[in-house]
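Hi P.,

Sorry for the delay on this. The queue was packed all week, but I finally got your sequence through. Input first:
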Amino acid sequence: TRFDASRFKTRFACEVKGFDPELFMDRKEARKMDPFAQFAVVCSDEAVKDSGLDLERVDKDRIGVIWGSGIGGLKTFQEECFNFAKGDGSPRFNPFFIPKMIADSASGLISIRHGFRGPSYVTVSACASGNNSMIDAFNSIRLGLCTAVVTGGSEAAIYEAGVGGFNALHAMSTRNDDPATASRPYDRDRDGFVL
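Then the structure:
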């Protein structure tokens, strides 16, 4: 796991195991992205490929990217805050701190990667972010604003700040003895969501 969760009420999570961004992009590019943005870029690459769009013939001014992320670059935010708190008091931050952290980096990175020049933004609406981005994408096509839209959502919140913060809200399941059945949103015995 990414960290020792034994001190938290929730001691399990659904991590993406074995993901190596360098299988999909070069090391320098990967280091400039938070994991949530790496997930966004990789799955959008696959979506564009699966779509069958002829990128040489399509009008890229009419291709949008509308992505969803409830938190954005939580790992980056947590690491920079920890480094600052443990540091010597000088206000030194990684120059990529803000670009890696902000949620709209996902749509920007996807747009730049493919040369899409249509609408590019991220919906931020907690757990509904990905769904809301798809609704916006649908409406952009329906209203004739775009020919196609790359849409979806990504998150990478399995860090101390994410698990600790949601535990403090009593929002996460604590079925530590049976994590495989912990996600049960419509069950009368539900006790929270699963990251």
